[in-house]
Amino acid sequence: MSKEWKVICRVSDIPILGSRVVQRPGKTDVALFRNGEESVFALLDKCPHKGGPLSQGIVFGDKVACPLHNWNIELHSGCALTPDVGCAHRFSVQIDGDLVSLSMTELAAAELA
Ligand code: FES
Fold first, then answer.
1. How far is CA 24 from CA 27, 71, 90, 111, in A?
2. 6 C-alpha vs ligand 1 centroid, how far in Å?
3. Cα–Cα distances in Å, from 48 out to 24, 62, 65, 73?
4. How far is ligand 1, taken at its centre, from the CA of residue 10, in Å?
5. Which of 7, 9, 83, 104 is the most exposed place for a label (fewest CB within 10 A)?
6. In a structure prediction context, what are the per-residue pLDDT tens digits for the chain, which is 113 residues long?
7. Atom 4 (ligand 1): residue with closest C-alpha?
8. How far is the CA of 48 from the centre of ligand 1 (A)?
9. Rounded to an integer, what distance in angstroms lies between the CA atom of residue 91 and that of residue 67?
């Protein structure tokens, strides 16, 4: 399936062990995360527990700790570590050199569970 990619920012625009919010007017924002291994991940900025803003969480390894109740969410999958259950929707990320792109199709998709 072909996807149109939209350049969002540079990898260096995302703080290491931090995040950057990509706004989606009328829809829940997307959070871009960068971990200590220079990997970039994109998740819906909404914790699967009670909707906390994952972009304000603490990144460690390949996880982010939700700022509200400290659930640990895997950045690869968006899913909570057991014993917690549920997943934040994951978005595809394309890295080209220092440029980070997201799929326009996914960004435009209706509100996701
Ligand atoms: S809302 Fe994220 S842990 Fe509760």
1. 5, 24, 15, 10
2. 30
3. 19, 17, 12, 9
4. 29
5. 83
6. 457 999 999 999 999 999 999 999 899 999 999 999 989 999 999 999 999 999 999 999 999 999 999 999 999 999 999 999 999 999 999 999 999 999 999 999 876 64
7. 69
8. 7
9. 21
Please state which of the four CATH numbers 2.102.10.10, 3.40.109.10, 3.30.565.10, 3.40.640.10 is assigned to the domain occupying 5-108.
Answer: 2.102.10.10
Token pair belonging to 95: 């890295």
**Does the beta carbon of 50 sit less than 6 angstroms from any atom of ligand 1?**
yes
Domain extent listing, the chain? 5-108
Report how far ligand 1's centroid is from the alpha carbon of 111 (Å): 19
